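Need residues for this backbone.
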């Protein structure tokens, strides 16, 4: 019987058996080769910090409203399935499937498990993986979307100086995108040395450690007191936002991409934010309508990111790090995603 990675309680992961459903005419069965979790949103649920347990965002009201029951997540025997994306090979197709064939490598959304059954007719979230596309690039489709939205929402333009705060998968990819889009200088900020080094190797111009340093002042020094034109803030940390405001040029913009929790009170908007005409844009790739609607929407962002990743314009070989065997994924998830994030960027799980 195949197995999947599930949460078995607060901060505890295990492998659990599951039954494969029969294949419908419009579906395909995939043998998974590689998979990866989502280090931000998913981790909060894993830690028992689900922000949607008491409140749920109502799309009609566009408000968080109280509700009686927790949000329904994909579950295995009542336990949430862990994982975000996978890459695998099609081993069976339904009678109505014409666009995909057995033996093709594909990428889709779903938990970390040995097989996937996915809709293969009219599914915009099932992608054919080209032979020369690294599987690491395919697994980074989801964070790439939020990175692209952040870079676009920052209103970065050709020749601008940019700072990226937070070097998880989203920030690491955003730094590459900013450089690819014509930023004259890209500075990255993260307390984890491993992540800073990976960003430098991928093309960032400078890497700064916020521990014990005034990052805002350092950004001003590096730009002859002007400050950076645009910031992509992916950590969701109020201290990072404060430093981003300090290092931002007069009239510059911050795209706040990170999924923040309630701030503790250290953020002071009466300082640089007030005096320097800062613009803060809260950025989320999956919120519709897009700020540039109708020209842009989530599907266009997704397709654009896939094209960049498939063409190798973004290199995720240093982003998916480390890669562990599926059999070790419970302990690996607990360590690399939850308890020791300093030792990883984006965890990869190999089934082969």
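Answer:
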């Amino acid at each position: 019987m195949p197995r999947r990675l599930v949460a078995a309680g607060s901060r505890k992961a295990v492998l659990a058996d599951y039954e494969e459903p029969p294949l419908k005419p419009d579906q395909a069965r995939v043998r998974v080769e590689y998979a990866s979790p989502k280090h931000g949103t998913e981790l909060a649920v894993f830690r028992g910090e689900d922000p949607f347990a008491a409140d749920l965002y109502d799309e009609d009201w566009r408000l968080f409203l109280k509700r009686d029951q927790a949000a329904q997540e994909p579950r295995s025997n009542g336990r949430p399935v862990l994982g975000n994306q996978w890459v695998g090979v099609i081993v069976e197709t339904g009678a109505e499937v014409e666009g995909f064939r057995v033996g093709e490598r594909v990428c889709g959304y779903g938990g970390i498990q040995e097989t996937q059954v996915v809709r293969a007719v009219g599914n915009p979230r099932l992608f054919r993986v080209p032979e020369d596309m690294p599987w690491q690039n395919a697994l980074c489709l989801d964070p790439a979307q939020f990175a692209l939205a952040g870079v676009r929402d920052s209103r970065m333009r050709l020749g601008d100086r940019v700072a990226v705060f937070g070097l998880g998968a989203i920030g690491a990819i955003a730094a590459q995108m900013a450089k690819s889009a014509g930023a004259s200088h890209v500075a990255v900020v993260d307390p984890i040395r491993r992540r800073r080094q990976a960003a430098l190797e991928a093309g960032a111009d400078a890497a700064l450690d916020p521990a014990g340093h005034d990052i805002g002042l350092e950004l001003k020094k590096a730009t002859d007191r002007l400050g950076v034109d645009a910031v992509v803030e992916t950590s969701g940390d109020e201290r990072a936002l404060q430093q981003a405001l300090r290092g931002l040029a007069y009239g510059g913009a911050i795209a706040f991409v990170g999924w923040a929790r309630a701030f503790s009170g250290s953020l002071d908007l009466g300082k640089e934010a007030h005096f320097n005409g800062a613009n803060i844009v809260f950025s989320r790739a999956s919120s519709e309508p897009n700020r540039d609607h109708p020209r842009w929407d989530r599907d266009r962002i997704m397709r654009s990111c896939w094209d960049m990743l498939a063409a190798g314009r973004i290199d995720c070989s240093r982003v998916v790090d480390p890669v562990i065997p599926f059999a070790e994924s419970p302990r690996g998830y607990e360590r690399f995603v939850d308890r020791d994030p300093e030792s990883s960027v984006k965890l990869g799980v190999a089934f082969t």
